[in-house]
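task queued by scheduler; priority normal; single chain, no ligands, no partner chains; default sampling; output format set to structure tokens
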Amino acid sequence: MNDSLDSFQPKTGQTVYTHWWSPAEPESEEFELPSGTKTCSRLKARFVGEISWVAARVGPGYPSEVSFFVEDNFGDQQYSTGKIIKASFYVRYNDVHFGQSEINRKLGASDFWFRDRNDVNHVLLLRLDEDKPKTPTSYVCVFKEGERVLLSYFLKRSPPHPWSSPQE
């Protein structure tokens, strides 16, 4: 992955949609987590208050923080049912921050581009979910980094397609 981006020519591309919440409990076969090194706890949650967003000077913004009430922890004792949790949004793919991937620097900051972690010849274009859940109760995936709770997202992939650079 550290090879020169000037000579990088992907073979395929794919749009992937981030979903930080789901109105129905997601099936694990339908979604993948944004990092191969993280595992998460699935919770049934109700968001309280507003979702704060980071407005980027260049390119799209992304969500920053939210608080939610845990309605069901599905037996995961580290997140108590009936408690309100403040969480930061996980805004990385494969532990690389949105907008800071090698390919994103090459293609420009108007989108979030990544090389797929499973295929270096495959490029992913991340599209962010809408800024508010559509239902009062949602299913979320959270994990801890130190004392911080991070709200992870699920990736839903569209069909792959032959690569064509957005700069052409």
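post-processing summary
- The two ends are 23 Å apart (CA to CA).
- Residues 87 and 147 are 10 Å apart (CA to CA).
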